[in-house]
Design a protein that fits this description.
Elements (H helix, E strand, L loop, with lengths): L2 E5 L4 H12 L4 E6 L19 E5 L5 H11 L3 E4 L6 H6 L1 H24 L3 H6 L1 E7 L23 H20 L3 E6 L1 E3 L8 H10 L4 E4 L5 E6 H14 L5 E4 L4 E3 H15 L10 E4 L14 H7 L7 H14 L1 H10 L16 H4 L1
Helix pairs in contact: 1-8, 2-4, 4-6, 7-9, 9-11
Length: 360
């Protein structure tokens, strides 16, 4: 496999995949992205002029456009990362998630299947379709439990339900048509170039600007944190060596409560950029997210033992690298804060107002 079609390559994880494939692995990369609000081509500036990289603006729901990409570029594999991914936005705008995550994945699968069926026997045997998904499809864990590849699906939000549906579609295209697919389900990613609506970049930037640091509910929700560069290497490992039709869970073995994450960001920033008083004073507990899962934690043993992957960053080292990157790259994130997303609360459900008759 030398030519990879990456969908959603202008997003957080997708851009990291493109940079790694081009600079470290010397692959030819075709980046297909619709360029929605969270996409940022500046995240790809370091490879934009490489002869091994090409960007094509297209919507994965547009079958004609996707067929044209396959026919023109003739990829050896697909890494499918294009998705709407923010749970809060899915609560008040679920239609976009169904369209991109479900309809878009179906469209891409069909385009890939027809392309794959037209290839030579050797090319068909080498082709792979890697679908990148989330641990949120499994629902909420009890204390001391971990997600494994056989954990039953139990999605609780419009986002996780849409990703669960896309996972099932990918599995069905393997079972029904023989399309050589692979699925990964990852824990919470963090690192450089992360759009500042997610917890870690939002807290970093709010803390830098001396704004309130919102913590949902009691802050005791647990997430397993995975440094984005470790995730990228896991994805490429699965693409090259994973068994067709299999699912691999990718986790950083770093479960942390949300409040612990927020407090640690405050402490690191106080060390890097002291402001006279501890930033922990900015922590503000706010109403919890509707349907907020209590605990996620991944057991990546299958990926580690079968394919030999290991995460290299601890949460402490990865968080420090992430904060240092944001401190050094205001030119990347400041335009987003000013023009795209300022950090306001998302995902609040308006309660209907009862009339006097309904109230009675």
């Amino acid at each position: 496999m030398r030519r990879i079609l990456v969908t959603g390559g202008a997003g957080f994880i997708g851009s990291a995949v493109c940079r790694y494939l081009v600079t470290e692995r010397k692959f030819d990369v075709i980046n297909v992205d619709k360029l929605t609000y969270a996409a940022n081509l500046h995240s790809l500036d370091s490879i934009a002029n490489s002869p091994r990289y090409r960007f094509i603006k297209a919507d994965i729901c547009n079958r004609r456009a996707i067929d044209a990409v396959f026919n023109e570029m003739a990829p050896d594999a697909v890494m499918h990362l294009a998705a709407e991914s923010h749970v809060d936005r899915s609560i008040t705008g679920s239609a976009d998630f169904i369209r991109t995550n479900v309809v878009g994945t179906h469209t891409l699968l069909e385009a890939a299947r027809h392309y794959w069926e037209s290839r030579s026997a050797t090319a068909k045997e080498q082709f792979r379709f890697l679908h990148v998904s989330t641990d949120e499809v499994y629902g909420s864990l009890a204390p001391d439990e971990f997600f494994v590849e056989t954990t039953p699906y139990d999605p609780r939000s419009p986002y996780s339900a849409s990703k669960a549906a896309s996972d099932h579609l990918v599995s069905a295209w393997w079972e029904t048509y023989g399309l050589p697919v692979l699925i990964t389900n990852c824990s919470n990613n963090y690192g450089p170039y992360h759009f500042p609506e997610k917890l870690i970049p939002l807290i970093i930037l709010n803390a830098l600007e001396q704004k309130p640091l919102p913590v949902y509910g009691d802050g005791q929700q647990v997430r397993d944190w995975l440094f984005v560069d470790d995730h990228v290497k896991a994805l490429v490992t699965v693409l090259e060596h994973g068994r067709i039709g299999q699912t691999y869970n990718v986790g950083g073995r770093a479960p942390k409560t949300n409040i612990d994450v927020v407090q640690r960001i405050c402490d690191i920033l106080d060390d890097r950029r002291p402001v006279g008083s501890p930033r922990r004073r900015l922590i503000t507990y706010v109403a919890d997210r509707p349907g907020h899962d209590r605990r996620y934690a991944i057991d990546p043993t299958k990926l580690e033992t079968e394919l030999g992957w290991r995460s290299t960053e601890t949460f402490e080292s990865g968080l420090a690298k992430t904060i240092d990157w944001y401190l050094a790259n205001e030119g990347w994130w400041q335009p987003l804060r000013e023009k795209v997303y300022s950090g306001t609360r998302l995902g609040l459900i308006e309660k209907p107002q009862l009339t006097s008759t309904e109230a009675v």
